[in-house]
Queue: 4 jobs
Job 1
Amino acid sequence: MTVIEYPKGPKCYNNCMSGYTGKSASIDLTTQKISIFETPDDLRTKYLGGRGIGVAMAGDRTAEEYNAPSMPLIFSAGPLVGTSAPTSGRMSVVSKSPLTGTIFDCSVGGRFATELKKAGFDLIEITGISDKWTAIEISDDGLSLTEAEGLAGMNISELSRVVGTEGSFAAIGRAGEKGVRFASIIIDGHYAAGRGGLGAVMGAKKLKIIKVRGSGKILVYDSEGLKNAREDIMRLLRASPAVFGEFGLSEFGTAALVDLIHARRMEPTDNFRRTFFPDSAKYSGYAMKTGYQTKKAGCAGCPVLCKKIGAEGAVMPEYETVSHFGALNGCGDLKAIVEANRICNDYGIDTITAASTIACYAEIRGIEAGPSEMLSLLSAIAEKKGETGATLAEGSYRYALSQGRPELSMSVKKLEMPAYDPRGAYGMALAYATSNRGGCHLRAYPVSHEILRKPVATDRFSFEGKARMIKIAEDLNAVVDSLTACKFLFFAAGLEEFSKVLNAVTGMDHNVQSLLAIGERIWNLEHTINAANGFDESHDDLPERFFAEEGSSGAAVRIPPINRKDFLKARENYYRIRGYKT
């Protein structure tokens, strides 16, 4: 066992800035060496925290394979974590994706980031590969590495019973141990750093679990200013129908989107062959609330509480999960969808990639998987059981390629697209293509203005003006992930309000434009890292299906294929706005 202790006392390390502890840790699992270092001032200034600092620290080391000893796995909190700022309980997990090969970050909630900051750390960086299963334990008094051979083979539910409820933990289930390319890191039992397979990075290092518990307080520069800035944001949230309205996120969780996306005829169905699923009402937010008598839950510091837990403890699936195990796989059975979500959380696998890979498999095989086979395939994937399970555990792109049908993987940069068909929202089409981490809705989230009509409504069937809007939104969300905060708040508030929060917490002097400049710096760094790893313009594209096939039209809505010429023109405009082309 390796233990490093450090002096008790103030949680601010050397000349730290308010909002930061000033202290970070580097852990080499090969040598069992633990080092404590000052959180670099220049990284805090240039990249804030969270995603930004994590990406900057990973840097060119992502030229290595994801399972190389030198590959870093970084858990990075932001300056707002541990304060009274709304949704201040998030962090970013950063490494190279085993699924895509891109630099990859996951923003995840729960209590881990808050406990980490209270224990005195802005971030922890993990390298090396242990020769046996290992646990990391972090507390006010020390940081230790201990053997975890007795935990190997446990899924998340069993680990949760062993670990208990004190503090927080980040762990992998058997999927991460076995190297499933889309394995998740699960926080506190059901919050997932899911996309991209960072659980497989953790598994490759033979790191089973990280436990953290802290009791310190985060220094705030201007407590009264923070209180006032928080109240401004809360007023905007309370006035937002999308957040606190009768049918909003607080009431029904993200599954509130089921009915809206259904009405817009842009719900991916049967592996994106259609865009309308007649049975979606069976798994809507309302159906889950009434069928499971759900109660509200959420991350540390969150006033929205969009997580929904059933009366008997079942964790309700998010919108992307419920739609992909539903419409994408032709399943209207809510119980089967909830069970699929449970299996994914327990084994630790990403729900979007898992569901999309099964849908790809079903199309190639010419079958409808059905609820029973869908659940059976999930378990086979998580265990890499048999030839089918092992092949599907590689993700839809590698599976489809092995079958000679790569065009049937509905992915960008090998990352499967979530539950918004791009034929129904052209900003989303462009955002999928340009995303640094692959087919992701959360890099720019144009659903906000194309579907929710916030902050202003845009024509969802037009590329006009979308290149600049996507660029600005990508920069903004890079800032949000670095503060760290929740994107849902930006349905109501904006960087104007959050710059005041950040200034009150840290004593900095930021405004909207200075924060967007940081977001642009983060985005361009990610783009540069990807380019060094072989990514180019040819990867910024969509599957041919979206340019050749119509969606499901009806109810006075027509869903035509995307005009490829218009798409390429918008992409060229985006490149020029980004400065990638002249």
Job 2
Amino acid sequence: MASRVLTITIGNDAAKLCDVAYSAQKSIQVFSAVTVPVPDGACEDGMITNLPLMAKAIKEACDANGITTKNVIFCMQSAKIASKEVTTPELREVKLRQFINTNATEYFPVNIEDYVIAYSVLEPIEEEGVRKSRVMVAAAPVDMVENYYSLADMLGFHVEAMDYVGNATLQFIRFQIDSKPSIVIQMSEDSTIITILNRNVLQLMRTVPYGKSTIINALMEKREISYDEAAAAMADKNNALKSSFAEGDYVTDSLRYLVNNISRVMDYYTTKNPQAPIEKAYILVEGSYVYGIEQLLSYELNIRVDSLEAIRQVAPPPADGSAPVDMTLYIPNVGCTIHPVNFTPRSAVEKAKRENAGKYFRLILLVGIFIAVVLVVFPLVSYLNKKKKKSDLEEKIAADEYIRETADEYYDAKDKYSDVSQFDVMAYNNDDYLMDFIEYLEERMPSDISITNMSVENGATTMTFTGSSKETLAAFILSLKDNQSISNIYVPSFSETVDASGVITVSCSMTCNFVNPSLYDTASDEAAQEQGTAGANEGEEAE
């Protein structure tokens, strides 16, 4: 995000505004940072409950501090915003969004229609040879998100993005440290966020309910002083924390539960990631400083803990003679400019579609007007060109008119030929040559062979013969093969019977096909008889 933007974080008691520019060179310039009280009843746990009152407070703060930027990023701060790390298949942007929206009910046990889903990809991973992605998915109530859009409309702002404190804090922390495995302990008034990163990628984030107020309450109780006095004493080196719990200091012991929680988070990470142990540790205290906190944590956690009091790559607003702005109080405002997730409600999407449709309509209208002007200015030239082409084509068609008549005659003759050929094919049948086939059988069949059964269908013939011997039948069958108009001769077997007087009768069945004999030149009777005799002898030998 290279352009200048106004970031706004609204809590129950205070709203924080930053006029920020984030450049591609990874540097952030803060032009103005303002904290204003939230009017009573205007916001409750991140939900803006009185839009006009909240809009009035923000507008007055902008006017008083010379903030004119109209592009805005809202950073929501609410316990109603849920986030969860999930593993998804490696998908392109559009497919990944569809996948997350489809599976959102598995991530959050709520009516998903009442929430807006946003996500950010943490890193690509590989599991069992399959490429996947670690993704942080967040869900915010749709009413909450739409209220921020309504607030922007009242103020005349354009919403660049909708982020939430968890993601904004993570982006800020990534901005401050290098790629080594590191733990960042971010201590605020009532809680502490523990973040572990490796290669500048989030590995683990936990929130524990102990913060600076734990020390302040211990000081108030031990010394019987006011809250403000205790807050001031917390930063005084004379009232510093001891370097270990072993020294038995009451105020120092108040942080024992916090340190134990930090230690458990570190142990959990180390167990899961033994190949990348934590190498660096940082503490970031929001607002007033806690003197001696680095030494205590370094000793108890057995790792050097450095302070992030000097924020890197963030230029604070000019002091102009006044006290410098403590940018640790505006961490979400700065972080949300780096890589915000974008909670976009359906109403905003539909509005954008309507605006785009209006833009497209205006564009089409302008294009239509331009085309109309062109058609009005150059109609005559276009008409004359078309008329000349039409005249040339008509002359060419007239010159080639004789071709049409020849083509018509050709197609008429072709159709008649096709009809006659089809009729001839349909009228033809091999049964027309049955008489020729029978006559041929009479000429070749010996007197001691008789046909007892015969059936014919389109030249396909089945016959049953009887004769005095197998040799006679075999010689006759072989003689039929001399006629090329007879084909597919098949005799499956011979059967032999003997009557009471001892007379032997041989029978067989034969199938064959016959066609027009004039298509073939048959051999002479003598040659056929000689071949028949030779075939009979061969049949006898085979038998």
Job 3
Amino acid sequence: MSWKIIEKYRRILAAETGAVPKNWGGKLTVCLVYPNRYRVAMGNLGFQTVYALLNACPDVVCERAFLPDPEELAEYRKSRTPLLSLESQRPLADFDLIAFSVSFESDYLHIPTIFALAGIPPLAAGRSASAPLVMAGGAALFLNPEPVADFMDLICIGEGEPILPPLLDVLKKGGERGEILAEAASVPGIYVPSLYEAVYDGARTVAFRSLDNAPAKVQRVWERELDRRPTTSVILSPDVEFSDMFLIELSRGCPRGCRFCAAGFIYLPYRQRGIETVKAEVERGLGERGRIGLVGAAISDYRGIGELCRHILQFGGKVSVSSLRVDALDGEMIEMLKESGHKTVALAPEGGSQRLRDLIKKDLSEEQILAACDRLIAKGILNLKLYFIIGLPTETEADLEELIALVQRIRERVIEAARKERRLGEVVLSVNPFVPKPFTPFQWCGMEAVKSLERKGKLLQQATGRLSNVRLLMESPKDTCLQALLSRGDRRLSAFLVKSGELGSWRKGARAMGLDADLLVCRDIPLDELLPWDFIEGGDRERLVREYHKAFGER
């Protein structure tokens, strides 16, 4: 046992507000694992919500574990200490259930590392009857759980509030492992991978069959009444992302339906929390932090957003939002952001040209984008962050040229205002390659080849490098290729993930397994081909096909 690790955990617990370790006596024990570092995990509102839901059950104990920091990882290996939970410093193998919360596909890479540190075989088929059950949930699993299906006994397809109570009833009964899994498979939203068989032919899934009376389709479930339980920060710590704010969820999903965006489809129907409920949480949150972080995919579309922001300011707080819709940005909202100390505001045109914005159903004109920038600049906000996607289906260099021209026009406005006010202003471009996501109209579209994306990135770098007051941030196309591979892959990727963990690099893992990632992610999939995630019931396939045809002007 490493006392360095124990002391670090004690320091973390001492600095936290809201974590209450529980006695284990006779209770179902759950270790909630976020496959990333503590700083990232505890800034995730979904992770905190599940932690609170589990600990709200009197006969359940939920503790936490995380991917160790690099120096801590070295200490684990040097001392041969098994991966420990934060609250009681117990090995993960001591728990009844290990539950992974996974928001992003790239974190799949860390799951084999966590198994290795815990001394638990990564594949469910290789574990003994006495090993903990292993479960996973989170947004990445809503989309496509297949790349990690062979690791898991249970997978949650949907939101935690309606899934956890009936599932916990099954788990608390106990019994033989096979009996528990068979009964759990009847719980809406629970997928038991061992009760399904996939058949492949090259890159294609040609059959997906349920076994032993398991449901043919797994239903995605969602919480119908968000106001039943507020979703807010549960644990506050000075050592995490967003440490200076109290997070409050306003809504789930997005009513816009942009054709590339998963959030607009997997969280349907779009739901909002009542404003009086949120106001009460604001007042409680301001007792903990001076800044309120509003969380949701469509903050600007929340009914009463202006009233809510005024309420926060009237109670002496400040407002924080990640980004805002260009066509929902009015003078009052900008003024409240300015009062809250925002020096930078993020906008998301996404498509660089009008043709591409129409293709992805963004419903924004260049005039609207420029008008929003003008309103921000007029209020003295001279730092603008603009989100763009490159590599969208049918994109040409003409579309990139239009993107550059739009940036130049925005830059001119910023520079002119900055000169008048004798201040500096900056335009930051955050450029991300397009990744096809399950349950979107573009799920059948291939990602653009890495070399082509790198060439486009260089073109943008050359064009913007000549412009003062403009800075380009671009996600690596190679890293995006991994995200696309895990986003649309099947359960055969489990061996690749294990090998990547052993070698410390996904690229080395791909080479060792003879995996041609470019070939798999760049392939356009025929509309009539069976998709790895087609066993999930909850996507309106007819709507997706209809939107696909509308995007490309087809019947």
Job 4
Amino acid sequence: MIKKLSIAVVLLAISIFVAVLIFLRGGGPSDAAAIVPEDTVLLASFNDLPRSYLRWQETCLAKLAKEPEIRAFLEKPLGVWNRNPAAGETETILTALKPGKFFVAVTGVSVDRVDTLVGFQYWGGRQEFDKAVERMRREFSPGKVTSQDHDGETIVCSQHDKYAIFSATSGRWGFVSTSVEAVQAALDRVRGKKSGKPTLASSARFREVSRRLLPSADITFFVQPQSAIDALLEVGHLLGAEAIPEQLAALRSTEAVGGSMKLDGEVQRDAWFFLRRSTLPTETLTHKTGRFTSPETIVFVDFLARFAGSAALVDKALTGKTPQSSVVELTELVTAACGPECALIVNWANGQMAPSGVLVLEICDQQKVTALLNKAISLFPETRIVEDGGLKLYSTPSLSNPLTSPTWTVTDQFLIFGLESASVLRAARSESANLTTLPAFAPALSTYRSANEAFAFVDTRAVFERAYATLRPVLLFGAQILPGARDLIDTGKLPQTETVTRHLPPIIFSQRRLEEGVLLESSGPVTVSQLAFAAGAGGFLGASSRN
């Protein structure tokens, strides 16, 4: 009996294994890089949407969103979104389509066009694919729809003014593109048929970048900028612009850029690698600037600043302005006297209305620092010098206002500059325990020690505590006077500080120079690259609205 049962279990296991193989084979390649051509300019891939959804539930932001106070506060803005009929229609289509993977690729760039390919692996039916594509086409102007055959598969084309959109599906993959050739090649690769060009997955450059990224990432990016650079140069030439050889050489030195983002427990992680081969610089972070931090430090950035060429940039920026020569000379003295290690430190004590901070510059030439101070005093003759415990504090009344009083001092190794004397004096004396010795810094300690070009730490919990206490009265007042604010914000349901802060781990960032290139890594409730993208998008939208 036991023997028969064992044979049955083995046969069942074999049957399941064979079924999985057939299922996966029918789905085609599972990696977007095995579908797009080797010379793809950009590839952004969402590698496993169901897995990402499950991982998202464990993140601190998802847990924060589940807090009763947060759900009550978001009830009004989410109600506005839910009343949008397009949102409900999109959700219904995606639920039926059951997408598993999704990618966007730029397969070609020229002066007059950009070829894109969108692909998604789905587990719904072909009817759901057709509905999703039809919904997308409705976002464009009405156009003539035609179809053509490609090796037994139908490619549908819709013409929208100057643009044509092609779509097709094979196996479990669906494709939408502005190029019929891109769709045809993708269909061939999905069905295992050899295409004219090698795939990106076979590229040595792609493999070298990928091994520096996060394993099992939720989102991956890959960029080969050379084609885009050539197209931009051609456009610039047509417009009469001339390329600057030094800047062009710097751009071309980057062979490829790869990025990855992973939902890892409560935090999000990302890694970006710039494939740029060069000899390793002799300067690396010594982490000496950590001693200027304090228990009240909420932001600490330790970085290498290579000032070479900064005087020329200042000279070009100030052409025709007064006093150009003096400012350029001052910049040249900073370049000669300071570097390479610098730090930006922001302190915000509990109960303090606003943060304060200092900029710390390593001194590499004491004589040049003396010349720098003399030059600064000659530019601002009213500069005051106050001695406090052996330290000379320099301040300039003409640059002061009721909120700030720029002050600087010089120690044996560093030049310290701040917006008020107390923060400069506190940093220079470094008498209290510094941030790097505190439990709050423990998650960042190993990253801090391994970073050799840049490191950043943001105590998000402390930042929110201080900022929320200051801005909460502003939010309450603004909601009463701004038109439409009451439709989005219920001031009576503002969450308590502790409700938010218990879900906020620190943001940690590092930059390392390797022989093959530069590796940037970040983690936190949001990452540094996400903040940078958000800031860039906000600036672009703001500029667009003004125009």
